[in-house]
Amino acid sequence: MGLTKLVGVLGTITSLMVTFTALAEICATEKSDNRGSVKFRDSGRTLTVIGHEHGITLEVMSMGRLADDVSSTNEEYLVKALMRLKSFEETLKQYRAEVAELRALIQAKKIDFIALEYGDEIMQAMTMQTRIYLPMTRANLENRGLKPSSIVDDSFLIFAGPAQYLQQTDPELMKNVRIVGVEDDDLMQKGLDLMTDAEDRLQTLAAAVGKNSDIYKFTERAYGRAVLEYDLHKFLEDEWITREVDQKVPASLRSKVMDPIISGFAAAEILRKRDAQSSAKLLAQEGSGVLIIGSAHVRSLTNLIQSACAAGK
Predict the structure, then answer these.
(1) 3-state class of 271 per DSSP?
(2) For 148-217, what is the HEC assignment?
(3) Which residues pair with 179 in a beta bridge?
(4) What is the structure's pLDDT at 100?
(5) Burial class (CB in 10 A: 0-12, 13-18, 19+), 130
(6) Do 38 and 59 meet the contact criterion of CB atoms below 8 Å apart?
(7) Which of 71, 149, 184, 283 is the most exposed place for a label (fewest CB within 10 A)?
(8) Which helix (H) or strand (E) holds 55?
């Protein structure tokens, strides 16, 4: 796989369809546009993995402030609400499509659970927050003398995500569908911390050489590739790395160049463990279901599920 394609995977919704036949222990793959499905023929179960861009957590949580903002004037409130929703325009389109798809699957009785990219602790906190968001936002609008509008529904969809949006807005539909978290909160936080550390180290290099320099561009590409790899020694033996470092990076800058790359490998190892635990939790679920996950993890997670499928697990 070429470097451009390899690094490009980071920003692409990748998919994989895997079929598991218990006796033959064979996995066949078939690519689709935006998801990976794992079908268990022996039990009739189907797991569909949907990758999407879920946004930056702090930006999403900012939608929560629309519920309890009582200090702004009505005009200021509406301007802020519309500006925030505008920034999530593409996400809203994606989430609305996922809501429609989930609704159709549930109505057809094709899924028993929806799995999310959270651990138990975060799942509990999110469930509590989503329960109070709608009534608080509606009450805020009423107290302001404003009529309920799409602002309430759209902001809640961004804040809660498609699964918990359906749970709170259509409990009758969701009464026989469970929402489960398949993440490990500690591993997720460690991975985020390592990624933040790597990004900080990239910024340190940018300050030294400039973001338009060949050295920075090389390091950024190498870091992106490192996040997808687990074998540091194999990576460092790559002729592309050796050639670029020897030709473009002065000895005085080599530690600054390698620091974010090595941090990227450390983050990749945590992500690998995180995906392994998530795939195990998914395969342990009863019935058929859907996993909604950040698109950057679809490739690695579906590969792990494929491996479990091939091993007959």
Answers:
(1) helix
(2) CCHHHHHHHHHHHCHHHHHHHHCHHHHCCCEEEECCCHHHHHHHHHHHHHHHHHHHHHHHHHCCCCHHHH
(3) 114
(4) 93
(5) buried
(6) no
(7) 71
(8) none
Spatial separation of the C-alpha atoms in residues 141 and 81, rounded to whole Å = 12
Span 12-31, pLDDT tens digits: 222 222 222 222 222 333 44
User: Both tokens of residue 237?
Assistant: 């033996």
Going by C-alpha positions, the residue among 227, 307, 204, 177 that lies closest to residue 8 is 227
251-280: burial string, b at 16+ Cβ within 10 Å, e else: eebeebbbbbbbbbbbbbbbbeebbbbbbe
**Residue 306: exposed, middle, or buried by beta-carbon count in 10 A (0-12, 13-18, 19+)?**
buried
Q: What SS3 class is residue 29?
A: strand
Number of other CB atoms surrounding residue 186 within 10 Å: 12
- Calpha distance 301→297 (Å, rounded): 6
CA–CA–CA angle 3, 265, 248 (5° rounding)? 55
pLDDT at 219 over 80: yes
pLDDT, one tens digit per residue, over 120-143 is 888 888 888 888 888 888 888 888
Instruction: Give how far Cα 176 sits from Cα of 107, 150, 167, 173, Å.
Output: 11, 28, 11, 8
Measure Cα distances from 293 to 21, 115, 215, 272 in Å.
Answer: 26, 9, 33, 15
DSSP three-state, residue 23: coil
